Amino acid sequence: MLNMVLSLIKNKDMRDKLLNKIMGFMCLFTIFFIIFPIIILVGKGIAYIPFLINNDEVIFAIILSIKTCFISSFICLILGMPTALYISKLDVKIKNIIEYIFILPLSLPHLISGIALLICFGNMGIGGFLLKYFNFSFIFTKSGIILAQCFINLPLFIKIILMAVEEIDSKMIFVACTLGCNEFESFKYIVIPNLKKQVMSAIVMVWSRAMGEFGAVMMVAGTTRMKTEVMPTAIFLNISTGDINLAIGVSTILIGISILSLILFYLVGGKRKNFYYAKS
Fold first, then answer.
1. Going residue by residue through the chain (280 aa), what tens digit of pLDDT does each one get?
2. Residue 140 CB: number of other CB atoms within 10 A?
3. DSSP 27-60
4. What is the pTM of this model?
5. Where are the transmembrane segments (predicted)?
């Protein structure tokens, strides 16, 4: 239809102007479609935030969310950094295969990731062994929240660090080696300083994603009030029981956390191309 209209207009300048106006209108409509529901939610939710301060359930959910997110982010840092650095040194073909393996959890629906964790770490998997010999369980516990957050975010952390390592100029490392630096010294004086900002941005992003994780957390840790209730499950529980005002207030807090995290992500050195993996 658009091609027919444009073909009827003989003047090239008029066709270009019309096309630009149509694309501009579609752009404005798309922005409005994305932003307007969030603005409406925040506009209604701000009024409920003062009432959440005295709500024990909400305070519990916020504190538990913050604690589990910090722990899971730290675990992602401890496991992800050496893993990413080791992968970066591998042969290109092997490296590509491993990268595809890490991309798979990012592309899976989080409910499926949660079911996989439930089977693996429940009584059908190694959960029975852990419970019998170590009296430890991930299922329907706070540890399960951390497990789910790590599983969802660890591939993202590794991917961001791998992309950052690829941006380091290999000539700098080569020159350092020619000047007498061994592998450890070149890593210490070249790689680490160049990765500092990207590591910080990766931590911020996985922390933010962990704060909003629901599907995998619900499957592994459940939605028990005042026990395994984090902010996303608090929203789910209160929507389910009809307390929509409380759910809107908690949602507004999560939106604020996400906005602050994104701002911090860019300020500490986040790259645009990392953003796709951060929110996928």
1. 545 554 555 556 676 777 788 888 999 999 999 999 999 999 888 888 888 888 888 899 999 999 999 999 999 999 998 898 888 888 888 888 888 888 888 888 888 999 999 999 988 888 888 888 888 899 999 999 999 999 999 999 998 888 888 777 666 665 666 666 666 666 666 777 777 888 888 898 899 889 989 989 999 998 888 899 999 999 999 888 888 888 999 999 899 888 888 887 777 765 544 444 444 4
2. 16
3. HHHHHHHHHHHHHHHHHHHGGGHHHHTT-HHHHH
4. 0.81
5. 21-46, 58-79, 100-126, 146-165, 202-224, 244-269
Q: What is the number of other CB atoms lying within 10 angstroms of the CB of residue 278? A: 24
- Identity at 148, one-letter amino acid code: A
CA distances, 75 to each of 72, 146, 154 (Å) = 5, 9, 8
**Which of 272, 180, 221, 233 minimizes the C-alpha distance to 58?**
233
